[in-house]
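Researcher: We plan to redesign the surface later, but first we want a full-length starting point. Tokens attached.
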């Protein structure tokens, strides 16, 4: 599978988690840990799509900070706005098998969806731009 095909696959997988987020806005039904997990998964898959797009074999990790650092190390221009996603890592690791405590800051689901959407839109645009370069 080519890097572009793999990037497209990872973005399709990220889109599934992103779509799930849209349906999980009712906090009476979906716990913060479940919502946060899908937000983290969408962000992780989008970052891995980006890494694939630039030809990087990414490690099998869930740490969004490490994935962002790897992008920067490989010369990708990573906007500061994406570094806010680092906080989502806890939902893949710490909160995956524990609960968010009441004293923790409450989630802002709409803001989380917006952050993931911005990342996914960015990676989608990179994919389109790269494919246009290939065609020329």
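Model: Full-length starting sequence:
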């Amino acid at each position: 599978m080519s890097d572009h095909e793999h990037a497209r696959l990872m973005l399709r997988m990220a889109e599934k988690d992103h779509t799930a987020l849209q349906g999980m806005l009712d906090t009476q039904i979906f716990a913060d840990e479940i919502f946060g997990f899908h937000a983290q998964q969408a962000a992780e898959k989008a970052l891995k799509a980006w890494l694939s797009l630039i030809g990087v074999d990414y490690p099998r990790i869930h740490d969004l900070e490490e994935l962002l650092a790897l992008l920067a190390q490989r010369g990708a221009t990573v906007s500061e706005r994406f570094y806010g996603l680092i906080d989502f890592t806890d939902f893949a690791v710490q909160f995956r098998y524990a609960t968010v405590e009441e004293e923790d800051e409450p989630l802002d689901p709409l803001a989380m969806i917006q952050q993931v959407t911005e990342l996914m839109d960015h990676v989608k645009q990179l994919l389109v731009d790269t494919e246009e370069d290939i065609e020329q």
